[in-house]
Design a protein that fits this description.
mainly beta; six-stranded mixed β-sheet; four-stranded antiparallel β-sheet
């Protein structure tokens, strides 16, 4: 018996299915192992381009704001698609305001390969007390090292404004990056489980009084 399960919930799909099919504009885009299909669905063909540029009819925009490009820089400031888990990296979004704005904010959401939300943020705090006139801007968000575990991650972007109840713009997951753990954990350089790999501090104390 064959059961066809249709969903955008990648976590549920990964648990229930062993084979997946992706359709794009009525055509089969991917058909295979569920892990491969989920990765293709989230990342697309351009997910690991060094820089994502929105052009022409595909440019996300309203009569107030237009998204131009997005990319990731490693800790040396160079555009990158592969990040060392120990090193910091910066996410950059370039956009254009078509007129003066008050309270508008840009942000992002990061998912892993299974479609699980990893984190999201906006540039609201960076805008406090600033006046944003018509023109081009860059919003940068820097992540410290020792946050992400090894794996592939995808990013979508959004724009909203007061009262922040709906988005003016929401893109597809259009930018991707890989995190590599070059050191590993312990003497066997193990790969730890989970989405995060924080630099946790351990302490071990003896409960026996060895002075007697």
């Amino acid at each position: 018996r064959t059961v066809l399960f249709v969903s955008h919930n990648m976590a549920a799909i990964s648990q229930l299915c062993t084979r997946g099919i992706v359709f794009y504009k009525g055509q089969v885009q991917e058909d295979g192992r569920i892990e491969d299909v989920i990765g293709r669905y989230l990342n697309g063909d351009t997910s690991l381009s060094v820089k994502h540029v929105w052009e022409g009819d595909f440019r996300p925009e309203t009569d107030e704001v237009r998204l131009l490009s997005a990319w990731i820089e490693d800790n040396s400031g160079s555009p990158a698609t592969v990040i060392d888990s120990q090193q910091s990296f910066t996410l950059t979004l370039e956009y254009e305001l078509k007129r003066e704005q008050k309270g508008m904010r840009t942000g992002f959401l990061i998912k892993n390969q299974l479609g699980v939300d990893v984190c999201g943020s906006t540039d609201f705090d960076a805008r406090v007390g600033m006046s944003f006139q018509k023109g081009r801007y860059q919003a940068k968000c820097t992540f410290p090292g020792m946050i992400f575990n090894s794996g592939r991650y995808s990013i979508e972007f959004g724009v909203d404004k007061p009262p922040y109840q709906s988005q003016l713009i929401k893109t597809e997951f259009c930018l991707g990056f890989d995190v590599e753990d070059l050191v590993g954990h312990g003497p066997n350089r193990q790969q730890l489980p989970g989405i995060m790999k924080p630099d946790l501090k351990w302490r071990v104390d003896s409960l026996d009084d060895t002075s007697r």
